[in-house]
Amino acid sequence: MTSSEREQHDRFLRLFLENEEALRGFLRSLLPSRQDVQELMQEVAAVLWRKFDLLESPQEFRRWAFGVARMQTLAFRRDRARDRHTFDEELLTLLASEMETAHDLLDAQRQALDACLEKLPATQRALVTAVYHTGTKVEQVAQLMGKTPMALYKLLHRIRVALLNCVTAKLNREGYV
Amino acid sequence: MNGEHPLQETIGRYLDGAATQEEIDVLQSALKQDARLRAWYLQYAHLDSALVQAPRVEVSPPAGRRPWLRWAVAAAVISASVLFLILWNQQSNPLPTKTPALFATLVAARDAQWSDYNTESALLSGRLPPEKIRLVTGSAEFLLADGATVVLNGPATIEVRSPKNIYIEEGRVFCRCPTVESRITVVTPATEVIDLGTEFSVEARPDLSTVVAVLSGEVQVGKKENRVLRAGEAVLVRGDAMLAIKPLDRSEYADLLRASPTIDESNKAEKSLLQDPGFEQALSPARWSGAVGNLQLAPRVGRSGNAVRIHSDGIAHWPQCRQEINTGDVSGKLIIAFAWAAPDLVRLQPRQQAILKITFINAQGRDFGFALQRFLSTQSQPNQYEQTQVAAIAPPGTQRVQLQLMFQTHLRETGTVLFDDAALAIVDPRSNEPLQLPTQD
């Protein structure tokens, strides 16, 4: 790698890392599988780097990256997820365009989340850790807890709704929404 | 959205991949028509994504000599389940904030067959059954909570009673206690062996005798009467009598020494591909390179010896230390990197982090893929090292791999991070097969 290539790569990496979480959230809103999100993130990162020369201004990075991610998601859906349970292209396009305008709120939401997580009871926090950080399958967790998978999905949903309500209340207090 | 929408739960199931096609059709139609539901959906999906990145309870490997390769190979398979099970077992208690109290973890296994499925499944899930476990054939390596390594060669029956106490009913076990904290006592039907800082083997035989052999350091052998056994000595104990002390025949222990990739001394050169991974020598482009003004050798502040100090002066762009390895064609191989880092003297500022990164480079010198892991935060204690790892399958065409230790900072922000004990290894993913978790039906 020459030094100019390295500098270019560092510039890319800085922008990519600054926007990585937003990009991951963007993809998550379009795909029903965390595993697919992870896989597609790698593809999107590779495409962004390959086309990085085309980016006109660093300030445009997020908008550009969201655009690339949207195209990649649609291609991914067409090529690999045809038989999976996903939304159709019309809805995905609608969601993507609304997300591109809502990213400031979603950034603030992410920042408020840590404080809300702290308020979760220990058992619920443990469940979140199991499902989100260790990648343990919900079915496995359910088996260990002696619950049905459906009961666990409901519990997870209740935890997420509680977190979302907490985040929204926090942002309300801070004047975001 | 105030109040619960009837489709909110369906949204949850959709994002968990558990919704039926009929539910998805209904949800899709509602989302297209209802802008408020869409807004709620987007927030909920974002929250789901953010949860993956949210702070979590970490399982920290013990300090001392680093069984990093074994951690790396086993990590993808075991540590996730370990983390969960530890948390779950403690659900009625306050959550641990640091290293959880698990006596031992299976970190590597080679052709291991356990006495029964329950034992095997528990071990592969990161749990240690609270009773005797029997390894029928093959070898298995455990990492005890305080840092000792215990390698079993089947057939062997053992019970880990605490992080400091192991009972061996039958079989030969090799122990390495790299630090004072990691010292253990090994009990057999015939005797008791107290480690005094060493590597030793204990074999409990079916006739109730025990053979203790010391490869390095010293151990204390005996219950009532005891004596210190030194490196190169072996003893046979029956009843409580020491029947024979003789020089150790290392060839007798070759199988045990081979059982662990980190214990086999001859294997050491293959453990890390990096030159001077611990920054013990002067910084040199032949080993580590980076912008000279941002790098400095930091004597005596490493985990053992020196470290490298990466400084951001507020102008420098992404200060880093890097090393490029000519690996040859490693397409499809698992590349694993490890590193330790700590804030230097003062805490990091918000948005400052350490980064461990591996970059894949093809024959033309073009980098075409990377994997990275960020660690350290404002919560990290100055000069207390934290470890991270990154693992990725090398894409087709990879001829060289670059490892980078980076300090993520922002313009006009200064700060300093210490890095130490980096490692880079190539693993054939197929060699992990014995560690695969049993699949669920």
Would you give an account of this structure?
The complex is a heterodimer of chains A (177) and B (441). Chain A contains seven helices and no strands. Chain A is an all-alpha fold and 177 residues long. Chain A folds into two domains: 101 residues, Rna Polymerase Sigma Factor, Chain: A (Orthogonal Bundle); 58 residues, Orthogonal Bundle (Arc Repressor Mutant, subunit A). By secondary structure, chain B is α+β, with helices and mostly antiparallel strands. Chain B folds into three domains: 46 residues, no CATH class; 197 residues, Jelly Rolls (Sandwich); 157 residues, Sandwich (Jelly Rolls). In chain B, strands 1, 2, 3, 4, 5, 6, 7, 8, 9 and 10 form a ten-stranded mixed sheet that branches. A five-stranded antiparallel sheet of chain B has the order 11-12-19-14-17, covered by helices on one side. In chain B, helix 1 packs across helix 3 and helix 2 crosses helix 3. Chain B starts with 7 loop residues before the first helix and ends in a 14-residue tail after the last strand. The interface between A and B is large, with 71 and 68 residues.
Keywords:
A: 177 residues; mainly alpha; Rna Polymerase Sigma Factor, Chain: A; Arc Repressor Mutant, subunit A; 2 domains; B: 441 residues; alpha+beta; Jelly Rolls; 3 domains; 5-stranded antiparallel sheet; 6 helices; globular
Q: Within the CATH hierarchy, at the fold level, what is the topology of the largest domain in chain A?
A: Rna Polymerase Sigma Factor, Chain: A
Stretches of chain A where pLDDT is under 50 for at least 5 consecutive residues are none
Q: Distance N terminus to C terminus of chain A?
A: 47 Å
Instruction: Kindly state the percentage of residues in helix of chain A.
Output: over 70%
Beta-strand residue percentage of chain B: 35-45%
Question: Which protein chains make the most extensive interface, counting residues with beta carbons within 8 Å of the other chain's beta carbons?
Answer: A-B, 71 and 68 residues
How many domain units of chain A?
Answer: 2
| DSSP, total strands of chain A | 0
Helix content of chain B: 10-25%
CATH architecture of the largest domain in chain B: Sandwich
Rg calculated over all Cα atoms of chain B: 25 Å
